[in-house]
Design a protein that fits this description.
Order of helices and strands: HHHHHHHHHHHHHH
Helix content: over 70%
Largest sheet: none
Radius of gyration: 28 Å
Amino acid sequence: MNLSWRTCLKAVVSAAILFLFVHFVDSIFAALGIAMNALNPLIAGLVIAYVVNIPTSFYERHYFPNSEKSSVAKSRRPVCMLLGYLTIILVIVLVLLLVIPQFVSCIKTFIDQLPSLVLSILENKTVVGLLPDSIIEWLEGINWNEIASNVSSIIGIISLLSTSITDVISDIQGTVDTVTSVAPAVVSVLSTAIIGVVFSVYFLSAKDRLLGQFKKLSETYLKPKWHDRIYYVLGTLNESYHGYIVVQCTEAVLLGTLCTIGMLILQLPYPTMIGALIGLTALIPIAGAWIGTIIGAFMILTVSPIQALIFILFILVLQFVDNYFIYPRIVGKSIGLPSVWVLAAVSVGGGIFGIPGMLICVPLFSAIYKLLKTDVDKGKGKSGEAGEVPEIETIENAET
């Protein structure tokens, strides 16, 4: 078999690249880590812009849509962007105001009742019979009232600091050590957040121009087949993430509202906080509802075990209604991912990146599932020609 010099050159270059990669793999990954750290503000800006664009696009479609005045056209983008940012900020502040004060109150209640709870357990002969003598002696030797008093004082200080910042420096050296160890991380996070917000404002204000420039570049430097394919993939990703965010947020608001109303009717404690918590954890697929239920039941348990049991039964009924009546109507065709792949996405994303990984991997798996299904159907002759695949829609025209 005759080998051309081009084939030999490609083989030599490929082998050299592979050798350099294996030999300098640590340096390569270190350089990639530095590059990712440098790109963190840009990535944060893209994520913020994508999320804020959802309410912004909604406001743009309803901001005097039939008006032909130039003043309306010029003011549409900045006004709707401002409303979009205010909407996100309002939601975050509202959740924090509903959750944090009552959560602190719940922890204080639990700490105050801890001594009597432990004493009642030690007086229960059935429970004592199940525990080893060493554990019973250890529990009896602890001064629970002193622990409760100390922890209550700490919680009270934390609660006071959450409402009014009063720093009294008693040990300058200790304060300097603390500042020098914490300040770099705090400054890094704050700088990334601030620069990310600035980037997001630029991305949103120039989104039409940026999308147009990206399209021109892809049309210029890519073959038509690759251009159409890339736009189809990006369009599928946009559809999956956009639909997932809208659907999950809508479902979370409805579930949290119904939980709050039901707890008010049943006269259960902490209705607004637990309702907000249930709605917030509902954003996490599969595990979210159970996380919110466990935390809510534990908080109510500090007040009354009977009410905690009633709360669990109420959540089970609410989950049944949500799973069979509310969620199917809201989701529709927005995600289109079978339950087994949702579980796989949650497991993979949670194992790699924790809760953020769950939120990222579910729509990502949905997009991959749609792309593979389209290719399989195309191979079976169920779809049209390759040129008929839809292009990526602009963010501005994405449906909410």
